[in-house]
Write a structure and sequence with these properties.
mainly alpha, two-stranded antiparallel ribbon, 3 helices
Length: 146
């Protein structure tokens, strides 16, 4: 019995390659209805040098920024935060007033017990929440989600 690169007929007319297939990559592989073809594990995120194609996981414009959302979101936060409901003053007014107070002694940073930090965190948290919901609502409306 000679060991050549000839194929051997196996189950269901599948072709089995000879044992010398490890040394020669061009020999036929196992192909049957019972087995999947041999697959080489590859990193899907690494582009191959031969194909020069780019594999992307996200759209190139994943942020899908829209200046309408930024403009309306800022106005949508400035309007309610300017209503004087905190001891007759507004959140925006208190935040800007604390900025002026802290700038009065500029080289010295604000103390940890300063009201500036409370107004800073509260004002910006409200702004970012408004912008996030504005982005969801505006893009959901333009892409017919609701």
């Amino acid at each position: 019995m000679a060991t050549t690169a000839a194929t051997i007929v196996g189950l269901g007319s599948s072709s089995l390659s000879s044992p010398s297939r490890l040394s020669s990559p061009n020999t036929p592989r196992l192909s049957s209805g019972f087995f999947r073809p041999l697959v080489i594990a590859r990193n899907p995120l690494r582009a191959q040098a031969s194909s020069r194609s780019r594999i992307t996981c996200f759209q190139s414009d994943w942020l899908r920024k829209d200046l309408n959302v930024i403009g309306f979101g800022l106005i949508g936060w400035l309007a309610p935060s300017s209503i004087p409901i905190i001891n007759g003053e507004s959140l925006t007014g208190l935040f800007f007033q604390s900025i002026g107070t802290e700038l009065a002694h500029f080289p010295t940073p604000p103390a940890l017990t300063s009201q500036f930090w409370l107004w800073l965190v509260t004002w910006h948290l409200g702004l970012f929440i408004t912008l996030t919901f504005g982005q969801i609502g505006f893009k959901g409306r333009t892409e017919d989600y609701f």
